[in-house]
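[step 3/7] inverse_fold.run input=structure_tokens len=403
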């Protein structure tokens, strides 16, 4: 198995997907994501229907160059090809706004290394851009995915239900309306966003306190399990802080990497390795505490985070096959409480080659495969926390202390 098969950036979609030539879904717009492996030039062309006119795009180490009938120069473009083996690239064509973007990693404004806006928004320029229908890649390049819509705006991280959004929210782009999620993510969102989908419910109002107690008390389940997991991401270098608990809801139905619904428990100061999400859709809701997120353009030991975010109890964020895929989660040392999240995953319906691992970067900088597993079923875990909490309450009433 090759490295690209072992650690895919995206899944291939459909038998007719070409790695060397793609047809834009809408003429004059779209994003082509591709990788480049080789010593030859990284050059591709975007053509009109009869290939009589178009754009020539060249990625080089020192920047990106684009030319039509004349050079379309971005004088600030000083980055292009990366020596990082995990890097991949993208180019965005936008005829409506008459803008061109190029970037490294996820296709978004935060990863742009080249941008050009036609100085005069003329009908002639628009007609030229709208005439472009295909992209032909060079021999050292392979198309990874084609997106219908161009890169235009910074995409919000926090999702809000449509009923909770104001006109000002929509105008400012502060939140992502739940209706704008993909079909699969809307399904996941609807499952975990309800008012009654909470940790401390009527059945066990002290659930969060019981979990905190179990983490803090030697001999209890959470404390013991966290110690056992200190070698989970590195057999040779135990790290008690690079641990968290995975409490699963339901079973693996073959439509997600691992069991689709997972309650994750993050003690203060604990964190995950930098990792990807198998090209799956995902929705994450914070049930208790706060979680800090670092977002990366691609999976690599050398990749630099392009964004940071902090999510509090009640916040819901999202992952798609092409956005927010690579991150690191941390419950900061400055936090006062454990963080507990519900994370749910599902492959897109078009994904015919399910990749069952969350790839991560180990302490030596190598990419490894992590098979999402379960530390305990949710029903069993909740019953166990009840027993531990009742026992602790009993001893407290007697004026005794287990610790």
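[step 3/7] decode complete -> sequence:
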């Amino acid at each position: 198995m090759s490295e690209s098969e072992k650690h895919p950036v995206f899944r291939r979609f459909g038998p007719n997907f070409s790695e060397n030539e793609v047809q834009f879904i809408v003429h004059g717009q779209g994003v082509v994501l591709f990788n480049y492996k080789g010593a030859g030039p990284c050059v591709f062309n975007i053509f009109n229907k009869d290939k009589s006119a178009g754009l020539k795009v060249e990625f080089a180490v020192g920047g990106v160059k684009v030319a039509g009938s004349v050079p379309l120069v971005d004088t600030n473009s000083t980055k292009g090809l990366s020596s990082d083996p995990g890097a991949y690239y993208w180019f965005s064509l936008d005829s409506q706004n008459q803008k061109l973007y190029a970037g490294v990693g996820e296709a978004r404004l935060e990863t742009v290394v080249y941008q050009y806006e036609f100085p005069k928004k003329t009908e002639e320029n628009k007609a030229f851009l709208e005439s472009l229908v295909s992209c032909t890649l060079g021999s050292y390049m392979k198309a990874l995915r084609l997106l219908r819509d161009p890169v235009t705006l910074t995409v919000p991280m926090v999702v809000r239900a449509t009923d909770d959004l104001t006109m000002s929210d929509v105008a400012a782009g502060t939140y992502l309306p739940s209706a704008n999620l993909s079909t699969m993510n809307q399904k996941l969102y609807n499952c975990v966003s309800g008012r009654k989908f909470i940790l401390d419910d009527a059945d066990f109002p002290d659930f969060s306190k019981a979990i905190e107690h179990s983490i803090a008390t030697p001999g209890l389940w959470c404390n013991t399990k966290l110690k056992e997991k200190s070698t989970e991401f590195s057999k040779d270098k135990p790290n008690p802080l690079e641990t968290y608990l995975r409490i699963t809801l339901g079973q693996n139905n073959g439509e997600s990497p691992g069991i689709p619904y997972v309650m994750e428990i993050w003690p203060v100061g604990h964190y995950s390795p930098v990792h990807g999400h198998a090209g799956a859709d995902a929705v994450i809701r914070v049930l208790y505490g706060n979680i800090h997120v670092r977002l990366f353009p691609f999976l690599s030991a050398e990749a630099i985070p392009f964004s940071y975010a902090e999510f509090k109890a009640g916040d819901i964020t999202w992952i798609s096959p092409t956005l927010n895929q690579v991150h690191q989660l941390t419950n900061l040392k400055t936090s006062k409480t454990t963080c507990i999240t519900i994370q749910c995953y599902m492959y897109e319906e078009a994904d015919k080659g399910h990749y069952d691992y969350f790839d991560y970067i180990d302490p030596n900088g190598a990419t490894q495969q992590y098979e999402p597993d379960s530390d305990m079923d949710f029903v069993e875990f909740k019953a166990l926390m009840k027993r531990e909490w009742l026992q602790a309450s009993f001893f407290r009433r007697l004026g005794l202390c287990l610790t």
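[step 4/7] annotate
Helices lie at 3-6, 123-130, 167-172, 183-192, 207-216, 221-228, 378-397.
The chain has seven helices and 23 strands.
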